[in-house]
Amino acid sequence: MKNFLRKQNKAFTLIETLVAISIFSLSTLGLLVILSKGISDTNYTKKKIIAGYLAQEGIEYIRNMRDTFVLYDPVDSQTGWTAFNTKLTSASCQASNGCYFDADNLFSITPPMPMSKVTLTACGASCSSLKFDITTGKYGYTSGEDSGFIRKIKVTPVGSPVNEIKISSTVYWAQGSGSYNTVFQENLFNWIE
Predict the structure, then answer these.
(1) Pseudo-torsion of CA 116, 48, 132, 148, nearest 10°?
(2) Please, are residues 80 and 190 in contact by the beta-carbon 8 Å criterion?
(3) Distance from chain centroid for Cα 175
(4) What is the pLDDT of residues 90-130, one digit of tens each?
(5) Across the strands, what pairs with 172?
(6) Which of 12, 92, 105, 166 could be a cystine partner for 122, CB 3.0 to 4.6 Å?
(7) What is the pLDDT of residues 2-61, one digit of tens each?
(8) Are 60 and 116 spatial neighbours (Cβ–Cβ below 8 Å)?
(9) Which of residues 10 and 147 earns the better pLDDT score?
(10) Eight-class DSSP state of 160
(11) Global pTM?
(12) Boundaries of every domain in the chain
């Protein structure tokens, strides 16, 4: 009788062990799924924050360009505003695909008015991808690795005569199986009349 009870206990212990292992495996698998989702969400958030900063930077460059033209034009501020509008129009920033600016050599441009000499280029079929230079920590177009971010600037004149311009800076990126974008918009005014 003792041997019979021992055999039943051994079989029962084996079943308990299998159940315990399967419960442990399922809970470990659940933790791994949660961990991978957390890492994915963290990567998305990181890219969204960077895209937000890059979109805001696009607005800041165009605003700085406007201020440079208006404040430092040798003739008068209205001539500077007109020259600013002409620069945006000639670069096809009003086109449906927008334009991008290359300010990589900004600090090597000689005065006067270096911001007025920043190159604006029409995007054509698509805009160039920003590069990230790991040594300087800067995003640009000349050096570094492809960052995966694309920035487009679109310009819409408001009213006639044009004393207001709507600027839209959109940054695109792909991650995982999706494509995302962040848009910043601001209206710039001819504030010296």
Answers:
(1) -100
(2) no
(3) 12
(4) 778 887 888 888 877 777 667 677 787 788 888 877 788 99
(5) 150, 181
(6) 92
(7) 555 555 555 567 788 888 899 989 889 888 888 888 777 888 899 999 999 999 999 999
(8) no
(9) 147
(10) T
(11) 0.79
(12) 41-189
The Cα 173–Cα 48 span in angstroms is: 9
Q: How many residues does the chain have?
A: 193
Q: Which residues contact 145 (CB under 8 A, 6 or more apart)?
A: 131, 132, 134
Concatenate the DSSP letters of all residues of 41-99 into one string: HHHHHHHHHHHHHHHHHHHHHHHHHHHHHHHH-SS-HHHHHHHHHHHHHHTTTTSTT-E
Pairing between β-strand 145-158 and β-strand 164-175 as defined by DSSP bridges: antiparallel
Terminal Cα distance for the chain, rounded: 108
Q: Which two tokens stand for residue 59?
A: 């607005």
- Rg (Cα) of the chain, in Å, rounded? 29
How many whole angstroms separate alpha carbon 16 and alpha carbon 22?
10
Residue 102 β-bridge partners:
119
Bridge partners of 117, per DSSP, are none
Orientation angle between helical segments 2-72 and 77-90, nearest 10 degrees = 130
Q: Apex CA 192: angle with CA 54 and CA 114, to 5°?
A: 45
Tokens for 179?
A: 């494509």
Rounded to 5 degrees, φ, ψ at 36 are -65, -40
